[in-house]
């Protein structure tokens, strides 16, 4: 569905992925990504490995750019539907309060906290 909460969840998860794409593109040594820094460093010691790592860096760059483009496209769709952060919060609160398991867990936590507070006074 196109609810505000679903859009918000998508933005949160996909933004984290785009950040990871950028980290892979940069290729910080010791982090396990073969991006630009690691690729250029590898060229000094072994040309074949360096070329392969630079090929990975090029593909990671394309992936990061496409991720940003897709994020912008989905954001424009999000704005066209009239969704907002306030609607997402309201939908989340409604969904949480309509879930009986969540209500029961909240009631149990409140009861335990109250019992602990009273037991501490005696």
TrEMBL record:
The keyword Membrane belongs to this UniProt entry's keyword annotation: yes
Subcellular localization(s) per the UniProt record: Membrane
Main location: membrane
Keywords: Membrane, Transmembrane, Transmembrane helix, Transport
Annotated GO biological process: protein transport
InterPro entries reported for this sequence: SCAMP
Pfam families according to UniProt: SCAMP
Bilayer topology: Multi-pass membrane protein
Transmembrane segments: 7-28, 48-71
Cellular component terms (Gene Ontology): recycling endosome membrane; trans-Golgi network membrane
Family to which this protein belongs: Belongs to the SCAMP family.
Identification of the protein by name: Secretory carrier-associated membrane protein
Provenance organism: Scleropages formosus (Asian bonytongue)
């Amino acid at each position: 569905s196109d609810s505000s909460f679903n859009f918000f969840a998508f933005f949160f998860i996909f933004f984290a992925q785009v950040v990871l794409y950028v980290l892979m593109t940069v290729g910080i040594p010791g982090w396990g990504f073969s991006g630009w820094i690691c690729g250029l460093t590898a060229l000094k010691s072994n040309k074949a490995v360096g070329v392969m790592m630079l090929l990975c860096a090029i593909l990671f760059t394309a992936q990061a750019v496409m991720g940003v483009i897709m994020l912008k496209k989905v954001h424009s769709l999000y704005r066209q539907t009239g969704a907002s952060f306030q609607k997402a919060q309201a939908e989340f609160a409604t969904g949480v309060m309509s879930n009986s398991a969540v209500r029961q867990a909240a009631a149990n936590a409140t009861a335990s906290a109250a019992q602990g507070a009273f037991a501490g006074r005696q």
